[in-house]
Amino acid sequence: MESECSKIRKLVNNHMIKKLSIPLKYIANHPLTKSNKWSGYFRFFKWQLNAKAHVQTINWFGDLKLNINKSMHGATGCIYVGLPEFNDMSFLLHFLKRDSFFIDIGANVGVYTLLASGHNKCQSISIEPIPQTYQYLNKNIELNQLKDKVNCLNIGLSKQEEELYFTNDGDTVNHVVPNKANNTTTVKVDTLDQIFPQQITNDILLKIDVEGFEYNVLKGGNKVLKNKNVKAIIIELNGCSDRYGLNDGMVDELLIQNGFKKYDYNPFERSLTVLEKFHTEENTLYLRESALEEISSQLKSATPFIIYGKNI
């Protein structure tokens, strides 16, 4: 008869296998590692063995460096596969020019901001509401000597100025909650229209990742959405808006009303494909319809970047 210890050991092993299978499957299917998944596996297991509770500095992409520790699960994909959100990050790298402007709403530790201002050399505003995460964001900006290019703001965004409670123990999934608790932080909240630099006349890209609060952020940016210089928006619509009595279809409708349309981007072909529905398990790319020809031309003519020996 199977002993209790054997049962427990089997349960633990099954849990570990299931836990490991998720990142390994991700590595095996990622566009940058699926042709050489063993290199990704090697980076994964090396990190698991060497990861520390304190922050470590790694060489990331090009000349960029990243401060990271084992609790930053959202950023560890940069170690395993280089560009975790490959299509969206590649769009950013192909779209933004030195004289463009990038606004990173829900920046976390700043990987998108580092690509925009560190690699493409454009100006950025990087917004992160959680104080500890904001410190990591600032350290990454300082590490890459980008303080002259990036304005970091430790605030949240909504449809009006106020104070809101945010969870502070969820890494990339920290979000607004209705009540104060042991795991919450009170955050000053502004609007996108208020923080938007009105003097910008060049191409603008927004990235919005706020765990279900996207509609409120955009409702506080009515002027921004009408600004013709805002050519593209990368936004996460993952169903979390339900927790606020909203739905992601409201975000989709609002963006369509303001002249945007949904697209998929293929970085290898530098091609855009119209989407009928927004993505629910990854970001969705919205492009200003009136600027589509200009955007397409810009993507085609962009200087290639090199990662893992691939010229993209």
Automatic annotation (TrEMBL):
In its UniProt record, a GO molecular function of this protein is: methyltransferase activity
Keywords on record: Methyltransferase, Transferase
Q: Give the matching Gene3D superfamilies.
A: Vaccinia Virus protein VP39
One of this protein's GO BP terms? Answer: methylation
Q: Which SUPFAM superfamilies match?
A: S-adenosyl-L-methionine-dependent methyltransferases (SSF53335)
UniProt keyword Methyltransferase, yes or no: yes
Q: Name one Pfam family in it.
A: Methyltransf_21
Residue ranges occupied by any Methyltransferase FkbM domain in the UniProt entry: 104-260
Which segments of the protein form a coiled coil according to its record?
none
Top-level lineage group: Bacteria
- What's this protein's name? FkbM family methyltransferase
